[in-house]
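INFO worker-7 received task bundle
INFO bundle size: 2
INFO processing item 0
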Amino acid sequence: MYRETNWALRPGRAEDVEAIAELRAEVMREDLVRLGRYDEHRVRQRLRDGFSPAHTSVIELDGALAGCVTVRPYEDGEGLYLEHFYLAPETQGRGLGTAVLRGLLDRADADGVPVRLVVLQGSAARRLYEREGFAFESEDPVDVVMVRTPRPRAAGR
């Protein structure tokens, strides 16, 4: 597990969009190719079109870009929508994603709100989400929608 001092979240900035679009293309390529949905331009443009610096945090590891995550209010106002959660391949599988996700979920639990997300069919990321309490809500041939209801806060937390 990463120690807190090694990584940090910083607010997203408009100038982060291209670095994050490249990261998205790299991270999603394998799953999108497997699903027959990879388009080199579209994978970047979808990020650009929906990029919201106000809702995005950049994950830095030892001061360098290691990933990002966007958390915005859900469309119906009931909870949060987690999207654009990407980690650079060299940082995956070492606990950083779990540490970042747990911090975000702790805040959602404190606010008593559910969190929804969409994960690609067959993506290894689904295991992380299931470990952290997300459950299947719906699916189509490409996407799986998952939701996590807020957990009660433990005494003394």
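INFO item 0 finished
INFO processing item 1
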Amino acid sequence: MSPRSASVNEELRRRSRERLLQATVELVGERGYEATTLGDIADRAGSARGLISYYFPGKRQLFQSAVHRLMHLTLDEALDRPPAPQGPDAGREVLARAIDAVLGLARDRPVLMRAHMAGILQQEGFVKCDEQRRLAALLRTAMVRYGSEDPDTDYPMLRALLMGAVVAVLLPGAPMPLARLRAELFDRYELDWGLGVPPAETAPTTGAGPPPPPPATLPAQG
């Protein structure tokens, strides 16, 4: 039997890594971060325990990469969902979809996203990985399509606002209503409530007066 080619080996490694990431998302969502062990993850993924350390320095890095992958896939699906944004409001629709995709994860996967935000705010901080870079590229692309003149400045602001909204939705004991947080973000970027995937709730009144100008002053581009 001839040895596998380098490309075949690379594909097998990619699939093995993705199984570990998917297993991490599933288990932490079911049990919480502390109750999920690396052995549990390896068993769910059908992998050897030692394979995790081959790909990831530790549990925290594995977990953040897993959540960043989920966020990237969720955002990618939202931006590609038909019908494709077209016309003069295409850029605003893209940004609305991006905001709704991230807020939707806070609503639909609270255990997972609460653990993710807690990890980022701890001493270990923000883990940069391939999955995080893919997520960043999609959010930056959303800002470009929105019409940002300076996406390298405006993208980090969008990321910070989204992170703050997710924390506010998931704050134990004093969560903010998702619809209100969505309205605040939509006001900031001058997005109509009906763009993206509006929640069932009626658009709340922010009571903040005219919204501040968005980071970009160019009209939305398709």
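INFO item 1 finished
INFO post-check item 1: The CA atoms of residues 14 and 48 lie 15 Å apart.
INFO post-check item 1: The chain has a mean pLDDT of 88.
INFO worker-7 idle
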